[in-house]
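Hi Prof. W.,

I finally got the Spore germination protein YndE prediction working! I wasn't sure whether to trim anything, so I left the full sequence exactly as given:
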Amino acid sequence: MRERIGTNEATFLIVAAMIEVGTLKGARNIVEKVGVDTWLVSPLETIFSLGAIYLLTALVMKFPDLDLVGFSRRLVGKWLAWLLGLIVLVYWVGLTAEVGRVTADTIKSSLLSHTPDAVVLSSYLLVAAYLAGKGLEPLARASIIIVIFTLPITLLLFALVIPRIHLDNFLPILPHGPWPVIKLALWRISNAEEMSLFLILVPFLKEPRRAWRAASYGFLTVMAVAITIITTCQGVLGVDQLKYTLIPGLTVTQLAEFAGAFIERISLIFISVWIILVFPTASALLWASSYLLGRLLNLKDYKMLAFYQLPVVYYLAWRPGNPFEVKRFFFFLQPLGLVVLVGIPSLLYLVALFRCRAR
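And this is what came out:
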Protein backbone atom coordinates (compact mmCIF):
# COMPACT_ATOMS: atom_id res chain seq x y z
CA MET A 1 0.00 0.00 0.00
CA ARG A 2 1.36 3.42 -0.99
CA GLU A 3 2.25 5.85 1.81
CA ARG A 4 0.13 8.97 2.17
CA ILE A 5 0.88 12.39 3.65
CA GLY A 6 -1.33 15.42 4.14
CA THR A 7 -0.96 18.87 2.58
CA ASN A 8 0.53 20.38 5.74
CA GLU A 9 2.97 17.48 6.06
CA ALA A 10 4.08 18.07 2.47
CA THR A 11 4.57 21.76 3.24
CA PHE A 12 6.77 21.01 6.26
CA LEU A 13 8.69 18.41 4.24
CA ILE A 14 9.48 20.99 1.56
CA VAL A 15 10.54 23.58 4.15
CA ALA A 16 12.87 21.10 5.85
CA ALA A 17 14.22 19.84 2.52
CA MET A 18 14.91 23.29 1.06
CA ILE A 19 16.69 24.82 4.04
CA GLU A 20 20.30 23.67 3.95
CA VAL A 21 23.78 24.88 4.83
CA GLY A 22 23.94 26.64 1.45
CA THR A 23 21.30 29.06 2.75
CA LEU A 24 23.90 30.42 5.17
CA LYS A 25 26.28 31.05 2.25
CA GLY A 26 23.71 32.60 -0.08
CA ALA A 27 24.66 36.20 0.64
CA ARG A 28 28.30 35.58 -0.30
CA ASN A 29 27.35 33.88 -3.57
CA ILE A 30 25.05 36.74 -4.55
CA VAL A 31 27.35 39.59 -3.54
CA GLU A 32 30.03 38.24 -5.88
CA LYS A 33 27.66 38.87 -8.80
CA VAL A 34 25.73 42.07 -7.97
CA GLY A 35 27.54 43.70 -5.05
CA VAL A 36 25.46 46.18 -3.07
CA ASP A 37 22.22 45.05 -4.75
CA THR A 38 22.43 41.64 -3.06
CA TRP A 39 19.32 42.34 -0.96
CA LEU A 40 17.20 42.91 -4.11
CA VAL A 41 17.87 39.53 -5.72
CA SER A 42 15.96 37.17 -3.44
CA PRO A 43 12.58 38.99 -3.62
CA LEU A 44 12.77 38.89 -7.43
CA GLU A 45 13.98 35.30 -7.32
CA THR A 46 10.89 34.46 -5.26
CA ILE A 47 8.54 35.88 -7.89
CA PHE A 48 10.27 34.18 -10.82
CA SER A 49 10.55 30.86 -9.01
CA LEU A 50 6.86 30.89 -8.09
CA GLY A 51 6.10 30.99 -11.81
CA ALA A 52 8.23 27.89 -12.40
CA ILE A 53 6.69 26.12 -9.40
CA TYR A 54 3.17 26.92 -10.63
CA LEU A 55 3.97 25.39 -14.02
CA LEU A 56 5.43 22.27 -12.39
CA THR A 57 2.47 21.75 -10.06
CA ALA A 58 -0.03 22.50 -12.83
CA LEU A 59 1.54 19.65 -14.81
CA VAL A 60 1.57 17.09 -12.01
CA MET A 61 -1.98 17.95 -10.89
CA LYS A 62 -3.20 16.94 -14.35
CA PHE A 63 -2.13 13.40 -13.41
CA PRO A 64 -2.87 13.16 -9.65
CA ASP A 65 -2.44 9.38 -9.54
CA LEU A 66 0.79 9.24 -11.55
CA ASP A 67 4.42 10.16 -10.88
CA LEU A 68 6.99 11.46 -13.37
CA VAL A 69 7.59 8.03 -14.90
CA GLY A 70 3.87 7.33 -15.21
CA PHE A 71 2.65 10.53 -16.82
CA SER A 72 5.72 11.02 -19.01
CA ARG A 73 5.23 7.53 -20.42
CA ARG A 74 1.66 8.47 -21.25
CA LEU A 75 2.73 11.71 -22.89
CA VAL A 76 6.01 10.98 -24.71
CA GLY A 77 6.42 7.20 -24.71
CA LYS A 78 8.42 4.67 -22.72
CA TRP A 79 11.96 5.42 -23.88
CA LEU A 80 11.84 9.21 -23.73
CA ALA A 81 10.14 8.92 -20.35
CA TRP A 82 12.99 6.71 -19.16
CA LEU A 83 15.52 9.31 -20.36
CA LEU A 84 13.70 12.15 -18.58
CA GLY A 85 13.58 10.07 -15.41
CA LEU A 86 17.30 9.37 -15.69
CA ILE A 87 18.05 13.11 -16.00
CA VAL A 88 16.07 13.83 -12.84
CA LEU A 89 17.76 10.93 -11.04
CA VAL A 90 21.23 12.22 -11.90
CA TYR A 91 20.17 15.66 -10.68
CA TRP A 92 18.96 14.38 -7.32
CA VAL A 93 22.04 12.22 -6.75
CA GLY A 94 24.28 15.19 -7.59
CA LEU A 95 22.32 17.43 -5.23
CA THR A 96 22.65 14.89 -2.43
CA ALA A 97 26.40 14.77 -2.93
CA GLU A 98 26.69 18.57 -2.90
CA VAL A 99 24.52 18.93 0.21
CA GLY A 100 26.50 16.18 1.94
CA ARG A 101 29.86 17.76 1.15
CA VAL A 102 28.86 21.31 2.12
CA THR A 103 27.26 20.11 5.34
CA ALA A 104 30.24 17.92 6.23
CA ASP A 105 32.65 20.82 5.61
CA THR A 106 30.55 23.07 7.86
CA ILE A 107 30.39 20.47 10.65
CA LYS A 108 34.12 19.87 10.34
CA SER A 109 35.10 23.55 10.49
CA SER A 110 32.73 24.62 13.26
CA LEU A 111 32.11 21.61 15.52
CA LEU A 112 34.41 18.64 14.87
CA SER A 113 37.72 20.11 13.76
CA HIS A 114 39.75 17.08 14.92
CA THR A 115 37.49 14.45 13.34
CA PRO A 116 38.59 13.01 9.97
CA ASP A 117 36.64 14.42 7.01
CA ALA A 118 35.68 10.94 5.82
CA VAL A 119 34.10 10.10 9.18
CA VAL A 120 32.03 13.31 9.24
CA LEU A 121 30.78 12.87 5.67
CA SER A 122 30.01 9.16 5.92
CA SER A 123 28.23 9.60 9.26
CA TYR A 124 26.04 12.37 7.87
CA LEU A 125 25.10 10.34 4.80
CA LEU A 126 24.38 7.18 6.81
CA VAL A 127 22.02 9.01 9.17
CA ALA A 128 20.29 10.67 6.21
CA ALA A 129 19.95 7.32 4.44
CA TYR A 130 18.55 5.71 7.59
CA LEU A 131 15.79 8.33 7.76
CA ALA A 132 15.14 8.02 4.01
CA GLY A 133 14.94 4.24 4.30
CA LYS A 134 12.12 4.52 6.84
CA GLY A 135 9.85 5.90 4.13
CA LEU A 136 7.98 9.08 3.29
CA GLU A 137 5.56 9.18 6.23
CA PRO A 138 8.25 9.03 8.97
CA LEU A 139 10.34 11.53 6.99
CA ALA A 140 7.42 13.96 6.80
CA ARG A 141 6.66 13.61 10.52
CA ALA A 142 10.32 14.13 11.40
CA SER A 143 10.36 17.25 9.21
CA ILE A 144 7.43 18.74 11.16
CA ILE A 145 9.19 18.19 14.49
CA ILE A 146 12.54 19.48 13.24
CA VAL A 147 11.12 22.63 11.61
CA ILE A 148 8.93 23.55 14.60
CA PHE A 149 11.88 23.07 16.98
CA THR A 150 14.72 24.66 15.00
CA LEU A 151 13.30 27.40 12.78
CA PRO A 152 12.11 29.73 15.57
CA ILE A 153 15.52 29.47 17.27
CA THR A 154 17.26 30.29 13.99
CA LEU A 155 15.08 33.34 13.31
CA LEU A 156 15.50 34.52 16.92
CA LEU A 157 19.28 34.55 16.58
CA PHE A 158 19.10 36.64 13.43
CA ALA A 159 16.54 38.96 15.03
CA LEU A 160 19.04 39.62 17.84
CA VAL A 161 21.57 41.11 15.41
CA ILE A 162 19.10 43.46 13.69
CA PRO A 163 20.29 46.42 15.86
CA ARG A 164 23.74 45.95 14.28
CA ILE A 165 22.43 46.55 10.75
CA HIS A 166 23.77 49.67 9.03
CA LEU A 167 21.48 51.06 6.34
CA ASP A 168 24.47 52.50 4.49
CA ASN A 169 25.41 48.92 3.55
CA PHE A 170 22.39 48.86 1.18
CA LEU A 171 23.39 51.98 -0.74
CA PRO A 172 23.60 53.00 -3.52
CA ILE A 173 20.63 51.20 -5.08
CA LEU A 174 21.08 49.72 -8.56
CA PRO A 175 24.41 51.45 -9.37
CA HIS A 176 24.74 49.25 -12.47
CA GLY A 177 21.07 49.28 -13.43
CA PRO A 178 18.41 46.59 -12.91
CA TRP A 179 19.55 44.04 -15.51
CA PRO A 180 22.30 42.31 -13.45
CA VAL A 181 19.81 41.80 -10.61
CA ILE A 182 17.07 40.50 -12.94
CA LYS A 183 19.46 38.17 -14.76
CA LEU A 184 20.79 36.66 -11.53
CA ALA A 185 17.27 36.28 -10.09
CA LEU A 186 16.22 34.35 -13.21
CA TRP A 187 19.32 32.17 -13.02
CA ARG A 188 18.62 31.43 -9.36
CA ILE A 189 15.31 29.76 -10.18
CA SER A 190 17.48 26.64 -10.18
CA ASN A 191 18.05 27.18 -6.43
CA ALA A 192 14.53 25.90 -5.76
CA GLU A 193 16.00 22.42 -6.26
CA GLU A 194 13.83 20.47 -3.85
CA MET A 195 10.62 21.71 -5.49
CA SER A 196 11.42 19.10 -8.14
CA LEU A 197 10.31 16.51 -5.56
CA PHE A 198 6.74 17.27 -6.64
CA LEU A 199 7.47 15.40 -9.87
CA ILE A 200 6.96 12.23 -7.84
CA LEU A 201 5.33 13.48 -4.62
CA VAL A 202 1.77 14.18 -5.79
CA PRO A 203 0.54 10.54 -5.88
CA PHE A 204 1.57 10.29 -2.22
CA LEU A 205 -0.63 13.24 -1.20
CA LYS A 206 -3.99 12.64 0.45
CA GLU A 207 -5.25 15.67 -1.49
CA PRO A 208 -3.28 15.76 -4.78
CA ARG A 209 -5.24 18.75 -6.05
CA ARG A 210 -3.70 20.88 -3.30
CA ALA A 211 -0.14 20.32 -4.49
CA TRP A 212 0.20 23.97 -5.53
CA ARG A 213 -0.80 25.10 -2.04
CA ALA A 214 1.73 22.79 -0.36
CA ALA A 215 4.47 23.82 -2.79
CA SER A 216 3.82 27.58 -2.67
CA TYR A 217 3.40 27.78 1.12
CA GLY A 218 6.56 25.77 1.67
CA PHE A 219 8.56 27.80 -0.83
CA LEU A 220 7.39 31.17 0.52
CA THR A 221 8.31 30.10 4.06
CA VAL A 222 11.81 29.14 2.94
CA MET A 223 12.28 32.36 0.98
CA ALA A 224 11.16 34.41 3.98
CA VAL A 225 13.96 32.73 5.97
CA ALA A 226 16.47 33.19 3.12
CA ILE A 227 15.60 36.89 2.66
CA THR A 228 15.95 37.45 6.42
CA ILE A 229 19.38 35.81 6.49
CA ILE A 230 20.71 37.46 3.32
CA THR A 231 19.47 40.95 4.22
CA THR A 232 20.80 40.67 7.77
CA CYS A 233 24.20 39.47 6.55
CA GLN A 234 24.54 42.38 4.14
CA GLY A 235 23.29 44.93 6.64
CA VAL A 236 25.65 43.76 9.38
CA LEU A 237 28.80 42.81 7.47
CA GLY A 238 28.66 45.10 4.43
CA VAL A 239 29.58 44.18 0.86
CA ASP A 240 33.37 44.24 1.23
CA GLN A 241 33.47 41.92 4.25
CA LEU A 242 30.73 39.71 2.82
CA LYS A 243 32.87 38.86 -0.22
CA TYR A 244 35.54 37.27 1.95
CA THR A 245 33.37 35.54 4.56
CA LEU A 246 33.06 31.80 3.95
CA ILE A 247 29.79 31.31 5.90
CA PRO A 248 28.21 34.75 6.44
CA GLY A 249 25.19 33.38 8.31
CA LEU A 250 27.42 31.75 10.91
CA THR A 251 29.61 34.85 11.25
CA VAL A 252 26.60 37.08 11.87
CA THR A 253 25.16 34.86 14.61
CA GLN A 254 28.42 35.21 16.54
CA LEU A 255 27.32 38.80 17.18
CA ALA A 256 24.01 37.75 18.75
CA GLU A 257 23.58 38.68 22.40
CA PHE A 258 20.88 37.62 24.85
CA ALA A 259 20.03 40.37 27.30
CA GLY A 260 20.89 39.21 30.81
CA ALA A 261 22.22 35.85 29.59
CA PHE A 262 25.69 34.41 29.94
CA ILE A 263 25.80 32.02 26.98
CA GLU A 264 29.21 31.72 25.35
CA ARG A 265 29.75 30.76 21.73
CA ILE A 266 26.15 31.25 20.64
CA SER A 267 27.29 30.44 17.11
CA LEU A 268 27.97 26.85 18.21
CA ILE A 269 24.39 26.56 19.45
CA PHE A 270 23.19 27.99 16.16
CA ILE A 271 25.21 25.70 13.91
CA SER A 272 24.18 22.67 15.99
CA VAL A 273 20.52 23.58 15.55
CA TRP A 274 21.08 24.29 11.86
CA ILE A 275 22.71 20.90 11.25
CA ILE A 276 19.61 19.23 12.68
CA LEU A 277 17.49 21.32 10.34
CA VAL A 278 19.41 20.31 7.21
CA PHE A 279 19.29 16.54 7.79
CA PRO A 280 15.91 16.21 6.01
CA THR A 281 17.43 17.76 2.87
CA ALA A 282 19.70 14.79 2.16
CA SER A 283 17.08 12.35 3.45
CA ALA A 284 14.36 13.71 1.15
CA LEU A 285 16.68 13.63 -1.86
CA LEU A 286 17.81 10.07 -1.05
CA TRP A 287 14.20 8.95 -0.65
CA ALA A 288 13.21 10.59 -3.94
CA SER A 289 16.14 9.19 -5.92
CA SER A 290 15.52 5.73 -4.42
CA TYR A 291 11.87 5.82 -5.39
CA LEU A 292 12.64 7.06 -8.90
CA LEU A 293 15.39 4.49 -9.41
CA GLY A 294 12.99 1.79 -8.27
CA ARG A 295 10.41 2.98 -10.80
CA LEU A 296 12.94 3.05 -13.63
CA LEU A 297 14.07 -0.50 -12.76
CA ASN A 298 10.51 -1.72 -12.02
CA LEU A 299 11.36 -2.63 -8.42
CA LYS A 300 8.57 -2.91 -5.85
CA ASP A 301 10.78 -2.43 -2.78
CA TYR A 302 12.87 0.69 -3.28
CA LYS A 303 13.61 1.93 0.26
CA MET A 304 16.93 0.10 0.68
CA LEU A 305 18.19 1.80 -2.49
CA ALA A 306 18.87 4.82 -0.26
CA PHE A 307 21.84 2.87 1.16
CA TYR A 308 22.92 1.37 -2.16
CA GLN A 309 23.33 4.88 -3.61
CA LEU A 310 25.70 6.00 -0.89
CA PRO A 311 28.97 4.87 -2.55
CA VAL A 312 28.15 6.99 -5.62
CA VAL A 313 27.03 9.94 -3.49
CA TYR A 314 30.12 9.66 -1.29
CA TYR A 315 32.43 9.49 -4.32
CA LEU A 316 30.91 12.62 -5.89
CA ALA A 317 30.92 14.48 -2.59
CA TRP A 318 34.60 13.64 -2.04
CA ARG A 319 35.78 14.64 -5.53
CA PRO A 320 36.37 18.38 -4.83
CA GLY A 321 39.81 18.69 -3.27
CA ASN A 322 38.87 21.40 -0.76
CA PRO A 323 35.81 23.45 0.25
CA PHE A 324 36.66 26.21 -2.22
CA GLU A 325 36.41 23.78 -5.17
CA VAL A 326 32.95 22.48 -4.24
CA LYS A 327 31.02 25.26 -5.97
CA ARG A 328 33.06 24.87 -9.17
CA PHE A 329 32.75 21.07 -9.23
CA PHE A 330 28.97 21.07 -8.74
CA PHE A 331 28.32 24.01 -11.07
CA PHE A 332 26.60 21.66 -13.54
CA LEU A 333 23.69 21.37 -11.09
CA GLN A 334 22.51 24.93 -11.79
CA PRO A 335 21.84 24.56 -15.54
CA LEU A 336 20.60 21.02 -14.91
CA GLY A 337 18.26 22.45 -12.26
CA LEU A 338 16.72 24.78 -14.85
CA VAL A 339 16.20 21.78 -17.12
CA VAL A 340 14.47 19.81 -14.34
CA LEU A 341 12.44 22.68 -12.87
CA VAL A 342 11.53 24.52 -16.07
CA GLY A 343 12.56 22.58 -19.20
CA ILE A 344 11.02 19.17 -18.50
CA PRO A 345 7.75 20.51 -17.02
CA SER A 346 7.37 22.96 -19.94
CA LEU A 347 7.92 20.20 -22.51
CA LEU A 348 5.49 17.78 -20.88
CA TYR A 349 2.88 20.46 -20.21
CA LEU A 350 2.89 21.53 -23.86
CA VAL A 351 2.55 17.90 -24.98
CA ALA A 352 -0.36 17.46 -22.55
CA LEU A 353 -2.09 20.56 -23.94
CA PHE A 354 -1.67 19.46 -27.54
CA ARG A 355 -3.00 15.99 -26.73
CA CYS A 356 -6.04 17.45 -24.99
CA ARG A 357 -6.79 19.67 -27.99
CA ALA A 358 -6.34 16.76 -30.38
CA ARG A 359 -9.07 14.89 -28.52
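Residues 352 and 358 are 10 Å apart (CA to CA). Does that look reasonable to you?

Thanks,
D.
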